[in-house]
Amino acid sequence: MQDHPPFEIIDGDLSLGLVILADHATNLLPARYGRLGLPESAFERHIAYDIGVEGLVRGLNQRLNAPVVMSRFSRLLIDPNRGEDDPTLVMRISDGAIVPGNHPITPEEWQYRLDTYHRPYHDAVSSTIAAVTEKTGKAPLVLSMHSFTPTWKGVARPWQVTVLWDNDHRAVSPLLAALEAPGDVVVGDNEPYDGALRGDTMFRHCMKPGIAHALIEIRQDEIGDAEGIARWVDRLAPVFARLNADESLHTYEIFPSRTGPY
């Protein structure tokens, strides 16, 4: 059986100046890894992928016609939203689940996963951003889609949607305001995680070159089925379109990172 490619680019109108990313879109594994020693049920959990996000970004692509780059391998294999020197790049234990196929792991296997999966995904992100820049002559707006669990260690998470960011507030401030405006969902600011993560996708492709961006997290029970996904496409698409129409978000500006100098 032929393995899936490590990424998928869904074509869109480059002249829009908008790029949508999905780092953890799928729970796929290359055949050579089996199930990494885990039960099949592990691949229906958040430890394997961001539930609902693939359907969400496909819906946003259809609605907005913006290009999308998504990974086509499970985060259990190697996490594309981590820097190459991050010790959690290949998880040995994830939310209490020991991953036998990742421990022990040889330096050669670590490098193989970087070369075969992680780097090609990031090359696809870079090439898509470059193609948009070449088409428009401006910086793109980059929006990265993720999802999070309704509870963590027995504690309920109240937010339906959150925005993660480091120090570049340009897209974040109007995005938070737009999400909060209807008053029918609880919106989190850097919840349930801190958006300042050195070497992650936003740091690498947006913070360092000075591209306006935001990482949006949606609670998984909100997008766990087709109806929920459709509701969030309806909610997010006009917000993203308004953001993207703001010319101030298509300029380059370097902000200091809370993770330290770079």
Any key phrases for this structure?
262 residues; alpha/beta; Aminopeptidase; seven-stranded mixed sheet; two-stranded antiparallel ribbon; 5 helices; 11 strands; 16% strand; globular
Q: Largest sheet at a glance?
A: 7 strands, mixed
Side by side, the strands of the main sheet go 1-3-2-6-11-9-10
Low-confidence stretches: none
The helicity comes to: 25-40%
Rounded to the nearest angstrom, the radius of gyration is 18 Å
Distance between the termini: 43 Å
CATH superfamily: Zn-dependent exopeptidases
Note down, in words, how this protein is organized.
- Helices cover 29% and strands 16% of the residues.
- By secondary structure, the protein is α/β, with parallel strands linked by helices.
- The chain has a single domain, classed as Zn-dependent exopeptidases (Aminopeptidase, 3-Layer(aba) Sandwich).
- The strands form 3 sheets. A 7-stranded mixed sheet has the order 1-3-2-6-11-9-10, sandwiched between helices. A two-stranded antiparallel ribbon has the order 4-5.
- A hairpin with a 2-residue loop joins strand 7 and strand 8 (155-156).
- The termini are far apart.
- It holds the Pfam family FGase.
- It comes from Shinella sedimenti.
- This is N-formylglutamate amidohydrolase.
- InterPro entries: N-FG_amidohydro (IPR007709), UCP029730 (IPR011227).
